[in-house]
């Protein structure tokens, strides 16, 4: 369809990011130091991004573009929202029993995974009770605490998310040991994140 949509002149763009912040729909991102219209169907054509541009790099144009998809915009905003449902999250601080553990899908994650993997909240934390730790920084055997949590609550499943680095093996081993020592048969899986933010398995 032919409609009004923004145009970004990359020669004028300094990559300041004002337009990306002003765009409430998330249609603009800064990529390689320049503003880019990354989702044409997210641009409503109202131009909230125009007034903030200090170099005049953004203008309107009428051209062939997909229709504005409000439902997709709303869904994308919801996916970016924080999904944490329990507190505290540190394994060392977590209680042995809590109402939020009843019927829970338990996520046991290495501290670094949430920083390395961009969509950690929407893909891992959402719908789960989260516990985090770092065996390299915490001089404690996590398996004892995790065993008590699994043994004393109705845990439905366990997902272990770790980094590819060797020190994260300690978290994986502690979680596996806890599952064995709990005496329960609970479905579980291990997901490994690479240092460049990709899922390896």
Q: How do the helices and strands line up, and which of them pair or pack?
A:
Blueprint (H helix, E strand, L loop, with lengths): L1 E7 L9 H5 L5 E4 L2 E4 L20 E7 L5 H11 L23 E7 L2 H4 L3 H6 L3 E5 L8 H11 L2 E9 L5 H13 L6 E6 L8
Parallel strand pairs: 5-6, 5-7, 7-8
Antiparallel strand pairs: 1-4, 2-3
Helix pairs in contact: 5-6
Overview of this protein structure:
This protein is of the alpha/beta class and about 200 residues long. The chain has two domains: about 1-80, Alpha-Beta Plaits, CATH 3.30.70; about 80-195, 3-Layer(aba) Sandwich (Rossmann fold). Helix content is about 25%, strand content about 25%. The chain has six helices and eight strands; from the N terminus they run βαβββαβααβαβαβ. The protein has a four-stranded parallel β-sheet.
Characteristic terms for this protein:
four-stranded parallel beta sheet; 2 domains; 6 helices; alpha/beta; Alpha-Beta Plaits; Rossmann fold; elongated; two-stranded antiparallel ribbon; 201 residues; single chain
Largest sheet: 4 strands, parallel
What CATH first level of the largest domain would be assigned?
Alpha Beta
How would you describe the shape? Answer: elongated
* CATH architecture label of the largest domain: 3-Layer(aba) Sandwich
Name the structural class: alpha/beta
Count of all domains: 2
Beta-strand content: 15-25%
Radius of gyration: 22 Å
CATH topology (level 3) name of the largest domain:
Rossmann fold
């Amino acid at each position: 369809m032919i409609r009004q949509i923004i145009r970004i002149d990359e020669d004028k763009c300094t990559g300041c990011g004002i337009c990306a912040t002003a765009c409430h729909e998330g249609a603009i991102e800064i990529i390689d130091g320049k503003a880019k219209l990354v989702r044409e169907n997210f641009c409503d054509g109202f131009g909230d991004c125009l007034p903030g541009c200090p170099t005049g790099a953004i203008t309107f144009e009428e051209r062939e573009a997909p229709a504005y998809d409000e439902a997709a915009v709303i869904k994308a905003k919801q996916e970016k929202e924080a999904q944490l449902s329990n507190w505290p999250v540190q394994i060392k601080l977590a209680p042995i029993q809590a109402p939020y553990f009843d019927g829970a899908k338990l996520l046991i994650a290495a501290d670094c995974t949430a920083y390395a993997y961009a969509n950690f909240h929407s893909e891992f934390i959402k719908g789960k009770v989260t516990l985090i730790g770092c065996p390299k920084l915490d001089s404690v055997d996590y398996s004892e605490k995790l065993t008590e949590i699994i043994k004393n609550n109705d845990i439905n499943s366990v997902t272990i998310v770790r980094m590819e680095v060797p020190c994260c093996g300690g978290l994986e081993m502690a979680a596996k040991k806890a599952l064995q020592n709990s005496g329960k048969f609970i479905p579980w899986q291990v997901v490994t994140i690479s240092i460049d933010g990709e899922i390896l398995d």
